[in-house]
Each structure stands twice: as C-alpha cells, then as structure tokens.
Amino acid sequence: MAQIWRDKKYSQLAERMVEKETGYCGQKILPSYRELMVLSAMIGFHYDKKSPVIDRAYEIPQRVFENNDSDTYIYLCALQDQKSGEIFREKNENECWRIFESYANSGLEIIDNWLIDSSGDIDGVETILKEMKKVAADMVEDDGSVVNLDELKF
C-alpha cells in the first residue's frame, strides 16, 4: 500500500497550516493534512519543482486519499509529469505516489519561503491568498486577458 510522506523540516509549517486557528473567525487555513499535501503538490507542480522527501516525519496512508477521491490528484499529477499512460501500469503505482510526494514536498518548501518572506503576516492567510492571486493572474494573462490583482476575490 502506498502512502505520502512529509519531510520533517516542514512539520512546523504543516501544523501552522492545519492545526493553528487564524484571526479569520478562528478558522484554520486548511482542514486536514491531506488538503495540505494536495495544495502543496499543485504549487510544486505549477512551479515545476520536485524534491524527494529525505527525512520522513508524517505519513498519510493511501486510503485517506482514496476515501476522499483525492487519489485522482495523485494520478493526474503523475500523468502530467510523465506525459505517458505507461505510468498507470500496475507495476508503476508506487511511482505515481512518489511523483506526487516530491511535488508536494517542493510545494511545502515554496509555501515556507513565502511565509518567511512575509514575516509580518502572522497567520499566513494574506500571503497565501496573494500568491494564489499571482498564479491566477498569470493563468488569465496566458489566455490573453487583462487582470487586476486587486479585483480578484476568493
């Protein structure tokens, strides 16, 4: 059975994102570690960065992703990375999970750097929203549209 690991050096970041209540109505940034890993993998994928987990700290079992239909992200991420359906062969299933894990690990590094660079943002919410707006604006610009970041609302 496959699983997704998080690097030990991002434990404090992960707890901040999932466990700590923010100033926004006492809400947490993300409801679970599964969502954190999906978001992180998408960020790592967007920036085309992968890095393997070196010092394993926290495991999310395969069933957690499967029970929430989040395993789709794992297989889509692997397909986009490999650009071949061969990755879906039975013998490659664990490789799909390692690809996703390496994108997630890089995404955690990117998020960590965002928050370090914005040390005045106590909760991290504004920083994450600002970075999401930048990505959304880049995607719109790629379509040839014009976008004002200040008008984007989440």
Describe this structure in words.
The chain has 154 residues and is mainly α. Helix content is 54%, strand content 7%. The protein is built from 6 helices and 2 strands, in the order βααβαααα. Strands 1-2 form a two-stranded antiparallel ribbon. The radius of gyration is 16 Å and the shape is globular. It starts with a strand and ends in a 12-residue tail after the last helix. The model has no long low-confidence stretch (mean pLDDT 89).
Search tags:
single chain, 154 residues, mainly alpha, two-stranded antiparallel ribbon, 6 helices, 2 strands, globular
The succession of helices and strands, N to C, reads EHHEHHHH
Strand order of the largest sheet: 1-2
Report mean pLDDT, rounded to a whole number: 89
| Radius of gyration over all CA atoms, rounded | 16 Å
Tally the beta strands: 2
Helix content: 40-55%
Strand proportion, as a percent range, falls in 5-15%
**How far is it from the N-terminal to the C-terminal residue, by CA?**
37 Å
